Amino acid sequence: MANTKTEDEIILFEREMKEFWTKLKSIYGTEQNNQTSALRDSCKESIKSLSEKWSKKLKEGDLMIYKIEEYSNEILQQSQRISENQEHLTEIKSNLNHEEQQKKDLTDSIQELKEELMKKKEIIASKNKAAKERVERLCKSKILFEERLGLEIRRIHNEQLQFIFRHIDHKDPDKPYVFTLSINEQGDYEVTSCTPPLDCIEEFQLKVRETNNFSAFVANIRKAFTALAYK
Fold first, then answer.
1. Taking residues 179-196, what's their average pLDDT?
2. I need a surface site. Which of 30, 127, 150, 188 has the fewest CB within 10 A?
C-alpha cells in the first residue's frame, strides 16, 4: 500500500515536473519569440529608416549629379561662346588693323600726290614765268623788229605770237610772210604755222632751242622768206 502511494507520488511529481518544464519552455519560448519578433521589427524599422535615408541620399546625389552635369554643359556652352567671341574679336581686330593699314597707305598716297602736285605746280609756275619772260622779251623787241625788219608782231589766241614780215617781195612790198610761234609745255619755242612754208623751219627751231638767240632766229626766217621771194 505504502509502495503504491510512493509510486503515485513519484508519477505525480514527474507529471508536475513535466508540466512545469512545459510551461517554462512555453513561457521562455514566448518571450524569446516576442524578443525575436521585436528585434526583427526593430531591424525592419532600422532597415526601412536606413533605406529611406539612403534612398533620399541617392536621390539628392542623383539631383546633384544632374545639376553638376547641367552646370558643366552650361560652362561648356559659355566656353564655346567665349571662344567664338574671341575669334570674332580677333577677326574684328584683324580687320581694324587692315583698315588702319589701308588708311595709312591712303594717307601716304595722298601725301605723295600732294607733294607731286606741288612739284608740278612749281614746275608749271616756273615754266609759265619763263614763258612770260620770253613773251615780254619778244614784245620789247617788237619795235626794233618793226623798224629794222619791217616786222609786225601780234598776240593771238592760246598765248601765241604771230610774226608778219613785209617789204620782202619788191614786186609786192605789202605781201605778208607769216609764221606763228608758241611756247610748248617743255618751255621751248615751237613754230605752229608758217606761210609760205619753209623747208628750213625745223632747223631754225632746233637752233633757237639750243642757243636761245631769238633775234638770230627771226633774222634767219626773214632771210629764208627773202630767198624764197627771189627764186
1. 94
2. 30
